[in-house]
Amino acid sequence: MFLEARSICKAYGPRVVLDGVSFTILEGGITGLIGPNGAGKTTLFEALAGVLPVDSGQALFRGQPVRARDRKAVLSYMPDGIQPWADQPVGWLLRFYSGLHGAPPHRAEQLIEALQLGDFRAARAGSLSKGEWKRFLLAMSLLTPQPLLLLDEPFDGLDFRQTQEVMGLLKTVRDRTLLLSIHQLNDATRVCSNLILLSRGRIVGAGTLEDLRGKANLESGGLEEIFLALT
Amino acid sequence: MLSLRIRWLLEHEFRQLLAARPFWLLLLLIGPLVGQAFITAVEAYAEASGIGGGPSALAQGLSPLDGIFVPSFGAYDLAATLLFPFVAIRLISSEKESGSWKLLLQAPVDLSIVLLSKCLVLMTGWLIIWIPGLVAIGFWASYGGSIYWPEILNLLAGHLLRAILSTAVAIAAGAITKNAASAAILTLTFTVGAWVLEFVAAGRGGWLEWLASNTPTSALRFFEQGLCQVSTITVCLSLAAFGFVLARLWMLPLRRPWFHTSIGAIALALGMIASTRIRPIWDLSENRRNSLPLADAEALSRIGAPLHMKVNLAPEDPRRTDLDRNVIAKLRRTLLRLTVEYIAHSQAGLFEAAGSHYGEIWYEVDARKQMSRSTTEPIVLGVIYQLAQVIPPASRDEKDYPGHPLAARPNGAAWFYYLAWPCLVGLAFWLVSKGRK
């Protein structure tokens, strides 16, 4: 197993957000963590990334337990809805992030080109629109070298064309395993080879679309129907 | 690779500092603040020196440290207390509020390095803020004023320590709280708490007074008097280190930060108590105001037996303040085996302790005892010599401090501080903003 989450529990006071979450991810490809708003996707990502303390549970990487503080060696997590260093120009921030993570010097330029950020090099990050921000954060996340990349809602805020382009870009990432949290079910089926369904802090199903359809006892139907049947 | 990453972090933090409006505002304000203090001090010094044929004070009483440098750098105490913390808070709180902290937590360097780079950049910023103060030293020298570098460097060290403490408090507050506003409130609470402690502890003696002597402003006073006290430096650096550790603890995703904080606080308290045993103190003032004359120090060093003093004066009695500051503080630096016992502990000793023994100061060496009511240095020394059977120094060959009167006008200072400095800051801000694009 590439990554295994075992019985991860997290509660804020009496409110249980993650209730014994366990799943596995195979190496390579794109896996989608699917769930409605409030299902616990972001909490699970933060717990896996080691930026949020959990009540119990552990994460194993290639069969070996990895402590929360050591997770940054094996995975990189890009949160949704953050606005890092809004006063600095986009070009500088990508150079900084690239330098900090030891990415090859040309990598930032490649991503600026691929994500159409060339016009915003000199712009303050804080002046970007929501879609531009999303592409900028995506560029930052793709500058990190860890073998596993966790992206929280990577398509949120992108228009249809941008979503298509970003999906295309993510599919070209061959040397890393991607775990995406997505609440738009249509987006999920278009980009992810494997799916993990999360509802109210619990895993309700995992596998390919066909696996999940079988688990839900449905002969046809999309992810939406499967999700409703399983929850 | 690590050094390259640290270089990136430092450059990034420096850019963040230069992007912070509070820093530029502080830079803009500090010039006129220092300038006003410096100009007023030079004028007052000139008057005391008899400018324009007016009456002059005794030359021995005119020291540039007290007359010029302490008041001029006083603006930095104000800045370190009320302005600079906001610059430091911004550097931490903005990371938390924007979410960028989650990215830094995943950076391939330890969190301590990230925090250290922030501290280093903040200290660099503080040194930039020092420019008007350093220019004041230059102005003073250009007027023909006396410069005694040991006491000036000691004063600068005190202000640097003061800024380090403020930074540590602000960084810790920024880490503990969720946003900049809460961090500012917490920092101000610490500042006001320190003032209250100084007020309440004044004249009370005991551990409370000792604690109050280690608040940032009180610690600075030692340096302003020309003293370099290792225990004060140790306590201040321990407090600063505690602030740094606290910031690290609260930035890490820990389940029980309060538990770790408590352990850190206990370690700090033990460290502070241990630091009271650190004795070295250097008097770096040019007029050796904190020291006994060299001949007396030499004579006192011949006393092998311990000296025990029993002081029957209440903490709020001005005679006790005189005795403590002008005699006992100096004796402690000379006599390593001196113990002082305060008998009157009343809060209203002047009125309450009207007993016939009130005001007595007993000295004891080798079971020989003598009482005196005087609190002046020569008389106290006389009693000690007599009791210890040590021959007092025949003469004190030491040259008296001559004083440095200077009847000079603060020429050019107003132009620099009120006009050139704001223009320079404005120009620098414009250039930096332009360069950022």
Describe the 3D structure.
- The complex is a heterodimer of chains A (231) and B (437).
- The two termini of chain A are 26 Å apart.
- In chain A, helix 2 (90-100) crosses helix 3.
- With 231 residues, chain A is of the alpha/beta class.
- Chain A has eight helices and ten strands.
- Chain A is globular.
- Chain B has 17 helices and six strands.
- Chain B has a four-stranded mixed β-sheet with strand order 4-3-5-6, covered by helices on one side. In chain B, strands 1-2 form a two-stranded antiparallel ribbon.
- In chain B, helix 3 packs across helix 5 and helix 5 packs across helix 11.
- The A-B interface holds A 46, 49-53, 55, 68-69, 72-73, 76-79, 81-89, 92, 96-97, 99-102, 122, 140, 144 and B 1, 4-5, 8-9, 11-12, 15-16, 19, 98-100, 102-103, 105-109, 252-255, 436-437.
Query: What is the C-alpha radius of gyration of chain B, as a whole number of Å?
Result: 25 Å
Give the % helix of chain A.
25-40%
Structurally, how many domains make up the residues of chain B? 2
For the report, how would you describe the main beta sheet of chain B?
Answer: 4 strands, mixed
N-C termini distance of chain B: 28 Å
Mean pLDDT of chain A: 92
Could you tell me which chain pair has the largest interface and how many residues each side has? A-B, 34 and 26 residues
In terms of structural class, how would the helical and strand content of chain B be classed? mainly alpha
Main structural class of chain A: alpha/beta
What shape does the CA trace of chain A take?
globular
**Number of separate strands of chain A:** 10
Oligomeric description of these chains: heterodimer
The rounded distance between the terminal residues' Cα atoms of chain A is 26 Å
